[in-house]
Amino acid sequence: MAEQANDPAAGARGPADFVDTDAKAGRIFPPKGEPQITGFNRIGLWSLYIKEIRRFLKVQTQTIWAPAVTTLLFLVIFTVALGREGREVLGVPFGTFVAPGLIMMGMMQNAFANSSFSLLAGKMQGTIIDLLMPPLSNAELMLGIVAAAMTRAVLVGGAVALAMWLYPGVTLNIVHPWAIVWFGLMGALMLALFGFLASIWAEKFDHNAAITNFIVAPLSLLSGTFYVISNLAPFFQAISRANPFFYMISGFRYGFLGESDIGNTNEAVLGAAVGVGALNIVLAFVTYRVLRSGWKIKS
């Protein structure tokens, strides 16, 4: 034993000896750099989704209830200013006409606000590594953030709908449930994807605010939320029909009233439903490709 202890050759152990020992002990380690999570990382995706949900629910007064109150103020102001003396639009009182548009507008704006904050906050605070390092694919990262933004949009829409249901003079009747669900989700998805793309591009919060103030807000307000586009001149009607927000809001309104600027039949609205679905597919593909490239994130 003493001779073996003093013999350098006997005491030296190479990498092969460790491998053999680990193998005999039942410990087999994969080669370095080989991914251990293959396929769809459901646990990681769910963790990211819950993390994003908890982030905005922690300040729900600001993220859920404040937008509901702000949107309700739009209803109060416009019904007082324009809804007097029994004014009707599309055969219903003005308050009933404008309520679905305000619900949809609140959902889209908050979907954008939520998804546009996630990556941008990480870039500004230096914590974006917490999103990039976990074993999540680009598609899973995008899906988790976008799904959380859509969840916030649905919660805001529910809060706004509750407030308007309690408001005197407003009636929310569900005529076509499919249109409410489809256009509500498609509108939230479109703005969530757009917000995610904006957060990749933006380098500071001023950039994000500029997109909100100069693109999202004008397109929301000038999309038939408070009026029917048939009252506009032909040139401005054409501009309104080129605005994707118009189809989201009018389709959503069709679900409550059974009438809209798009048309008063399922066949007329179905064309718009297919169109907004195709638009979201294209937007999702573009967003995924930009995220995968690492532009302004990894470079």
UniProtKB/TrEMBL annotation:
Cell location: Cell inner membrane; Membrane
Record keywords, A-Z: Cell membrane, Membrane, Transmembrane, Transmembrane helix, Transport
ABC transmembrane type-2 domain boundaries: 58-294
Chain segments annotated as transmembrane: 64-82, 94-120, 141-167, 179-202, 214-236, 268-291
A Pfam cross-reference name: ABC2_membrane
Topology in the lipid bilayer: Multi-pass membrane protein
A GO molecular-function descriptor: ABC-type transporter activity
Taxonomic superkingdom: Bacteria
GO cellular component assignments: ATP-binding cassette (ABC) transporter complex
Family assignment from sequence similarity: Belongs to the ABC-2 integral membrane protein family.
Protein name per Swiss-Prot or TrEMBL: Transport permease protein
Record lineage: Bacteria, Pseudomonadati, Pseudomonadota, Alphaproteobacteria, Sphingomonadales
